[in-house]
Amino acid sequence: GLKVNSHFIFYQNPTVISFPSGPELIPPGACKSLNSSAIYANNEVNLAEVDIYGFDYDYTLALYSNTLNKMIFDKAKTFLIEHFKYPEGIAKYDYIPNFAVRGLHYDIQKGLLMKVDAFHYIQPGTVYRGLSPVPDEEVLELHGGTYHIPLTEDSGFYGKGPKVKQFMDIFSIPEMTLLAVANDFFITNDIEYDPVHLFKDISEAIGMVHLKGFMYKWVMQDLDKLIQRGEETDAVLHRLVSNGKKLFLITNSPFSFVDKGMKHMVGKNWREFFDVVIVQADKPHFFTDCIKPFRRLDDNGDLRWEKIKSLDKGQIYKQGNLFDFLRLTGWRGSKVLYFGDHLYSDLADLMLRHGWRTAAIVPELEQETKVVSTYRYALSLTWLQALTGLMEQLQIHRDQESKEVFREWQEEREEAMIKNFFNPQFGSIFRTCHNPTYFSRRLSRFSDIYMASLSCLLNYDPTYNFFPRRTPLQHEAPLWMDQLCTGCVKTSYMEEMSHIR
Ligand SMILES: [Mg+2]
To answer: What is the per-residue pLDDT across 256-298, written as a single tens digit (0 to 9) for each?
Structure first.
């Protein structure tokens, strides 16, 4: 009978299936090209055609240390207890670094944090209530027997759905962590509460950290510790300007804050680098609103009442809207490349409505490309593909034993790409077990190119042409088996099967 498991076929009996062993298991060159300082292209971008470079500020020009997340968490936790009168017991929870990852969805009514794939399905094993995982059976029960999240409940285009919110920016990591610990407090102490109130109050408490100026104050007090890779931002700006490029800045942050940070990174003459500087822009509305006019800030930081007829170098403007910006600058279409870290607030409208080229800053790439380049990961991935190929072949056999083996392999396949290669709770921000994530799909839709940080630009000539790799569409791709070792696994496996039967 067929009492072998798939490991046995591959590893114990290499003569049956002529599958190479050792390092050759990794397709040659597949992993060596991954580099955390590379820029990846979703769409072709020729830098020679880009005359104008635009930037968001927070997490684009200024990258912040993880310490800031803990500070935001602690302050918001204090607001939750002191301002919103939540139980003192929540105070005992410390910040948990690496609990949450960007791009997760949160079910506001059920109080569940979870990872959703590109097809709106929850990834089993990635649902958390408080700090504890929710068993798959319970997740199914809670969603009427399916892992699917209907679009009506979900985030729509901008992640702000009525029932399920997607956390898309890096600032939301402390918010997700605070939600998790506060839910955990109520659950473990068996106290009845309304998760909807908790969500709203935590969202306001986090907002207070920003609105009351705490975050700005901390960063300005400790620029050295909290702002990272400032020299590299400086180098990028220098290089662009010396190549005759025009630069502009559109940020939601206030001028005093941006000014301090930019002076720290670039020097006191930083404004000479930029042709247009816009602060407190109120993105994403900046990109869709046609009404709010630009206002000029004078040297004292006071708002002027004059009508704005041009956007001049050396001046600081507040608010405004993209339609006026396009009219006043004439900077349209593919000659503009805009960099931002928020896929919705920074990039979506530019891509969908205005035809600027877009570049996403995704700091998580640094860690994720490191993992993907490891031998252990490559081995698991190769194994996953081999196993999937075997299953594809085996399913034509309808006998009981074959069906049994298929079931075993199915289980093994679910465990093959164990998520703890990455974040132990939620795995990679780019992939669920077998699909791209919701985040990934948005990233490829809204960004022409993406990179871990602005400094990656330093590795490319200013006339570089980024070509996306031509990956096969499903109908163009070889079968799983052929892809691996051009049929040798398949043929040998089929031969072996016929002997066994
Ligand atoms: Mg930002």
So the answer is: 999 999 999 999 999 999 999 999 999 989 998 888 999 999 9
Q: Where are the domains of the chain?
A: 6-38+365-500, 46-62+228-361, 67-220
CA distance 363 to 477: 31
Helix (H) or strand (E) holding 324: helix 322-329
> What tokens appear for 302 in the block?
């006071």
Q: Which residues fall in the annotated binding site for GMP?
A: 58
Fold of 46-62+228-361: Rossmann fold (3.40.50)
Note the pTM of the prediction, 2 decimals: 0.86
Q: Which residues are catalytic?
A: 56, 58
Q: How far apart are CA 478 and CA 448, in angstroms?
A: 27
Indicate the burial class of 16 (C-beta count within 10 angstroms; 0-12, 13-18, 19 or more): middle
Cα of 312 to ligand 1 centre, how many Å?
A: 24
Structure tokens at 429: 């921000």
Of the candidates 425, 453, 465, 445, the residue with the CA atom closest to the CA atom of residue 369: 453
Is residue 188 within 8 Å of 130, Cβ to Cβ? yes
Tokens representing 115? 């990872």
Q: What is the mean pLDDT of each run of 10 residues along the chain (501 residues)?
A: 38 36 41 73 96 96 95 97 97 96 94 94 94 95 88 64 85 95 97 96 95 92 92 95 97 94 95 96 90 92 92 95 95 95 90 91 93 88 89 91 92 75 91 92 95 94 93 80 50 49 40
Distance (Å, rounded) from C-alpha 306 to C-alpha 286? 20
Ligand 1 centre from 495 Cα, in Å?
A: 57
* Helix H or strand E encompassing 406: helix 400-416
d(CA 88, CA 3): 58
Q: How far is the CA of 56 from the centre of ligand 1 (A)?
A: 6
